[in-house]
Specification:
This is WGR domain-containing protein. The protein is about 25% helix and about 45% strand. It is an alpha+beta fold and about 70 residues long. It has a 4-stranded antiparallel sheet, with helices on one face.
Length: about 70
Amino acid sequence: MLRDSRPCVWFYRVEVSYNLFGEYSVLREWGRTGKRGKALLVWFSNLRDACLAAERWRRRAGRRGYRALEG
């Protein structure tokens, strides 16, 4: 997702993944393009909770002006 803000462009990324320990993680990354951003990794014991959390964070980013990339 990107947020247009003059003179720079902001990004926000949410990713759900499965790790070697049988847990699911949600990675959130955000910041300005071309700069070092921030990242936060949260673990969940099941896929359902991880997906619900990822969707909640994605909706929240949308309310803050980020939009999904097309393509």
